What does this fold into?
Amino acid sequence: MFSPTRPHRDDAVIAASGLLGGLFLWLLGLHTQAGRTFDAPWVSLLPLMVMASLELMRRSAPQTALVIGTLTLVADQFTRGNLVTVLMFTDLVYAAVLYGPPAAARRIPVTSFLITVGVTIGFLAWFRTAEVLLIGIVTGLVSFGPAITGVCVRNHRDAAETARLRADQTALLAEMDRTQAVVAERSRMARELHDLVANHLSAIAIHSTAALSIDDPETSRGALGVIRENSVAGLAEMRRLIGLLRRGGADAEPSAAPTLQGLDALIEQARTTAASSGLTCTLHDTREESGALPAPVELAAYRIVQESLTNALKHAAPGPVTVRLATSGQVLSVEVTSVFGDRPGPRAPGSGAGLVGMRERVALLDGHIEAGPEPGPDGTKIWRVRAELPVEERAVKE
It folds into this structure.
């Protein structure tokens, strides 16, 4: 970049070259005209030096340089003239179009064309001879030609800059898409990890606490059995998931996603694990047999029931834990209720990630979910999780 108060290096080279070239032609006595008002040879050096100094402003103040250069070229017509003075003026016209504001780039070619036409018609009407057409041609070469050249170069330069900006924008959008894809994949992995192992680890935490706090061999033996069963199951789930992540490509074998048909086994496992906590788990499925639901819907419903049972194992007071499934039109309703309140005995800590994961799963399906305490029968309070999932394929977000 160049400073507005300091000429560009290339402009200084052009100015010096023009001045030296004009001096060389002057020393050789080569002039463009004779018999002018100021016929002394040295007078033609004045426009030459002014035009050379204007070349220093061709980038920093192109319009000002062009205006002064035009007046200088007119003054040069009253001297013997110098070819280099005219050539430097053409460069000022070119620079004014190339480096000037857009309005000037549009205005200068039109103005120079009108001047060329006006000069040609004026001299033709004055001298009434065909030779004066040469004056119009020279005028066009000096003014209109450099202006059109500047327009072409400026258009190419703007097109290249637009292409570069478009390429940068495309790269930025691609990077944003990649980042969003990574974030979405990390969120999905976090939900799967939580849903796979939270139930097993919660059971392990509760029964290990019970084994440590209750001094009874039978209780300890039963707790250790549950701990072993859940640890083995959790380890198998983790190994399966890690294997999928390591293979994770085109050669990876597809894994069967949990479906609603596996809820019976899930409820039975929860019933066994939660028996010592005074929880009784039951399933009420009132859906009509209408075929399999879309895989994302079945997976989301299964994970919501799984997480709700895990939360009941962690926090629910002794009492029934009821899972209800129903369909209404094109909506699958999943509801899990448990007794809300304090309970004696060990409890597993919660992080709140389970509710976040359920809401994310439901949001991906354009569904609706509510979770929180509500009044129950006999003046008790219950904790209710209710999700409504659209079952149409078009409602599933990939």
